Amino acid sequence: MSLVTELILSADSEARYPAPKEIRIFQDFVRTGDQRIRIAGILAENEQRIVDNASAKFWERCPVTPSNSGNPRKTASCQRDQGWYVRLVAYSILAGSEKPLAEIGTVGIKEMYNSLEIPLRNLVEAMRCVKDEAVSLLSPEDAVEVAPYFDYIIRALS
Questions:
Q1: Is the CB of residue 22 less than 8 Å from the CB of residue 10?
Q2: Whose CB has fewer CB within 10 Å in the chain, the N or C terminal residue?
């Protein structure tokens, strides 16, 4: 759900027009549209690079982990999940909202990884590495926009 949808649904649920503060939020959303589109494009174009570099960095920090066990299937599954989160961050940036992460990516996340016996502390560290790699490709201004979405994932795993 986009920020615009959230604003409209909020006003509609109270049978009112958007308040001046909500209109300003909408104006900011429109004003930052080009930036959000550019950031999402950078993440999309560099997803594999982000995942590959983040995995290498993670394995340096945590060499004994299922994703680095020599089992290609486990490695591919872990990297697939990392790429999935990069994509969800791009969705959230486009939407201007954490809703895509909340609704698609973090509901039941701890339970799922616990059931797969994947240590959550490893996932947190892996996501920190993914965040570092993604942010390193961006300008400081764009990095400020992206970092909170990765932090949201990290908090959901903690």
A1: yes
A2: C
Q: What is the pLDDT of residue 74?
A: 84
What residue has token string 């390193």? 136
CB-based contact 127:157 (threshold 8 Å):
yes
Indicate whether this model's pTM tops 0.85.
yes
pLDDT band at 1 (very low <50, low <70, confident <90, very high): low
Tell me the C-alpha to C-alpha distance, in Å, between residue 52 and each of 56, 77, 78, 124: 6, 13, 11, 17
Share of the chain above pLDDT 70, in %: 99
Other CB atoms within 10 A of residue 117 CB: 7
Q: What domains sit in the chain, N to C, each tagged with a CATH number?
A: 1-31 (no CATH), 33-157 (1.10.490.20)
Which value, to the nearest 10 degrees, does the dihedral of the CA atoms of residues 49, 132, 110, 100 take? Answer: -70
71 residue type, one letter = N
CA–CA separation, 111 and 120 (whole Å): 10
